[in-house]
């Protein structure tokens, strides 16, 4: 906070014509830092000097985006630009301010004002001097009053420029109009997006007049008809010629590396601007299509130009239908080669995934290449997982359908393995040629790098690093590879990737639930149970995946309850394995709960007493196995939740096949002995044992009234919509306690 008087002095000094420029710049910087400032009395209305107008405008635009301030600045800038500037004044100080104005509030300029600027920009782009600027005299003692005549500007390869000046033209010094040329190009894209599409178009904007012009011509000669065009149409014409010239200049071999980087950046911008122009005036499409086809053929084999392929693909995605051009080869190259070779380029990865995200709807409607290439797209995520996770959250739903769901499920679970494989691929590529010789098939590989080149492991790596969907291949082939990649599991990049998998898995199941039918759900449940044994060995990763899979298992069962009957063999095998309670308690517990909930004729008429009995016997054996008393030293500890769910499920099954009630009741009655055994109390905490005993008592009491038990545990599907039944379903322990109080009333309890 600064004193009001001091703020007033800062503004006075800033606007003083006698103040040195450095002090003015400093005052403006301080005022910007203080923004928003309530004591501001600055105004740009009467300022004539362009440098001062630029400084004052920068302060006004920093005031919390106040529309009135932005509009006032915009009006003043345009007013200064439309008149002839005095000697020594330059518009180059005003264009950055104007660019800021249209970013903050495009509506602050009227159509008449935008026409004024469009006319100026067309001239700045097309008619800048092609002679180099003159060095400013230093004013020293030895400076000569005679100045050397400036030479012509050159191209990036050193050749003398024979066409008009662009941002890629090279000179030792630059003139004011050349600086305006560069600034006009830098703000051209935003200007066209804000104002280029408004106003009148050319009379023949929807015909194919563009086909009559030579697509190889870099520029068209300035004609009287061009000058008679409306300002916005004329700007589009000059901008299109400018972009064509830039693309021609990008084909020259630069003398300096920095010029090469600038070439690529300008090429991307030029293609993007041509796309915008073609959206606004379709007569340019036919000229641009042939031009960009040639450009694509020239640069597609050069990895250094990979980022330019994205806007080219965007152009053809937007316009190939109108031009009747088959652009599948362009998409195929983009989706096949680029992710496989350049997944490790972070800026390209972001731009590529953003391109896919922006066009996902269009791709799914027009091209199968997009969905077929999802294994390649996931390489970007595997290598750049934290920055790209939000983009893939938006992208994943467009990649999923009934044909890709299973393969994407496997791919998500193997995503950390993919990261590890990509790391090994990069390291293998960097090895000297002498070390890249094929390994002896008879010798087992000792390291991951050796395995990458080993004939026995090569096909596994190829499948994991595939560039397109391969639903017919068996993912089981990756089981040995997951073990082999164990040495890379602690790699920080692999660990980061593993953290993104649970988020995408949850999204995967939410999306699949919208279109999955019974057979697909059955397939997913079988794979879920199988893959729980086949995960990359990262403990935290496995725990997170088990948590997600267990909750989604319940969702799948709710969507298709008949799967309990249809997959009885697989479910019995899983729920009858004791090790699953120890290693995969969350999945096991939710699977057992689903058996108790949906193994009922209410959900599937095919459910028979024999099937109920078979499930009962399997789960009874499991409960017996984990609750039988052993010598103190060998009593294992199982999750109390698993014991409680097993007891509840056995009770539910007995309520539906009442011949089983005596067996369950006898088993539940023995739980008191179990929880009081010294061998058990030594491995379970007191609270857990108390909860187990309470649940066993509640279930026994419920079974004393078989008809009530059947209603509580197996309500008719239609009844589940009543308020009472919803409460029972939502809170079974509450229902059990009510029954217990009815059977064993506490002192002073009066029913009714």
UniProtKB/TrEMBL annotation:
- Entries under InterPro entries matching the protein: AP5Z1 (IPR028222), AP5Z1_ARM (IPR055450), TPR_AP5Z1_C (IPR056856), TPR_AP5Z1_N (IPR056857)
Provide the transmembrane region boundaries. none
From which lineage does this chain's organism come? Answer: Eukaryota, Metazoa, Chordata, Craniata, Vertebrata
Segments forming domain AP-5 complex subunit zeta-1 N-terminal TPR: 1-221
AP-5 complex subunit zeta-1 ARM repeats domain span: 262-379
- Gene Ontology CC, one term: AP-5 adaptor complex
In terms of superkingdom, the source organism counts as Eukaryota
The UniProt record lists the AP-5 complex subunit zeta-1 C-terminal TPR domain at 391-742
Q: What is the protein's name according to its record?
A: AP-5 complex subunit zeta-1
Family matches, as Pfam families: SPG48 (PF14764), TPR_AP5Z1 (PF25153), TPR_AP5Z1_C (PF25154)
Signal peptide range in chain numbering: none
